[in-house]
Design brief:
Blueprint (H helix, E strand, L loop, with lengths): L7 H16 L8 E6 L1 H5 L10 E4 L11 E5 L12 H4 E6 L5 E7 L10 H14 L6 E5 L2 H6 L7 H11 L3 H4 L4 E3 L8 H11 L4 E4 L3 E6 L2 H23 L9 H11 L5 H4 L8
Parallel strand pairs: 7-8
Antiparallel strand pairs: 1-3, 1-6, 2-5, 3-4, 4-5, 6-9, 8-9
């Protein structure tokens, strides 16, 4: 019988967290990832579940996720170590029928709890589950370096910042036509930042936490990683352009419209009509 360690979802999380570490996005225990699983996907590995699983109350009720399963990164776990010991660094959870608690069926074998941002992730999962009719199954948070650096020097208007990234790389409008939501700086791990992130994710697949990092969502680990990677690459291009004396020419509004038509996406109109977010 196949071990849960060789399952597609554990192996996918090992690769995603390893890639994020190699990118320099997840220093120490920075960042967290949650993957929503179908019940049958998780239960296929019931032979590896704990005989006496822990049941832990949720800090925020999550009725929209009742009965859902999640593979999540653990609190205080270093992404660079996930590949060495997935059973210690990851956790497989089942939310109860009321959305008030979860059962830890596998993982965190040396003790501990899921990511401290679990409530924020669950709030965003609930929103994205509804917004995409269940298609989006991943929430990913990391400290993407250049994306975060831009939050210190450009106007943090969401539409103008989105326009800046769209002009930073041709593929950006195609990859995230719904743009980037931006929160004010908020204390992480709080109810407030979780609600604000979920509100922004109702209309955006990417959300900036200024001076902190990025939240991304998508249907699977590869697409969500690729989404953040694309925004980070555009941010790096913009950072380099600004360091070379500023942006002198870039993609025009007419060209962005043509790009959307060619790839069959509908760009966020506020960003399409906005001026680029220049250095403050």
């Amino acid at each position: 019988m196949q071990s849960i360690l060789t399952s597609w979802f554990v192996q996918g999380m090992v690769k995603a967290t390893g890639d994020m570490w190699l990118k320099g996005w997840d220093e120490r225990n920075g960042g967290n990832v949650t993957l929503r699983l179908l019940p049958e996907e998780a239960r296929a590995f019931a032979a590896d579940f704990y005989a006496e699983p822990r049941v832990i109350a949720l800090t925020q009720p999550a009725p929209a996720l009742a009965g859902d399963w999640f593979l999540v990164t653990g609190s205080g776990k270093f992404f660079r170590n996930v590949q060495l010991d997935p059973a210690d660094c990851l956790a497989l959870l089942e939310v109860d029928a009321q959305g008030l608690s979860y059962t830890l069926h596998w993982g965190l074998c040396n003790g501990g709890l899921p990511t401290s941002e679990l409530a924020a992730h669950f709030q965003s999962h609930a929103v994205r589950k509804q917004a995409t009719q269940g298609a989006d199954r991943v929430i990913m948070h990391c400290h993407a370096t250049n994306f975060m650096a831009l939050s210190y020097v450009v106007d943090l208007d969401p539409a103008r910042f989105t326009r800046l990234l769209w002009e930073g790389s041709t593929e950006c409008l195609v990859v995230f036509p719904d743009g980037v939501g931006i929160l004010p700086w908020m204390v992480p791990g709080t109810d407030g930042i979780g609600r604000a992130t979920a509100d922004a994710m109702a209309t955006h697949s990417l959300v900036m936490w200024p001076f902190h990092g990025i939240f991304g969502t998508g249907p699977d680990l590869d697409h969500t990683f690729g989404l953040i990677d694309t925004a980070e690459k555009a941010s790096e291009v913009v950072v380099k352009a600004l360091s070379m004396g500023g942006i002198r020419q870039s993609i025009s509004t007419e060209q962005l419209i043509a790009l959307g038509e060619r790839f069959g996406v509908h760009p966020w109109q506020a960003a399409l009509q906005a001026e680029r977010s220049d250095v403050a």
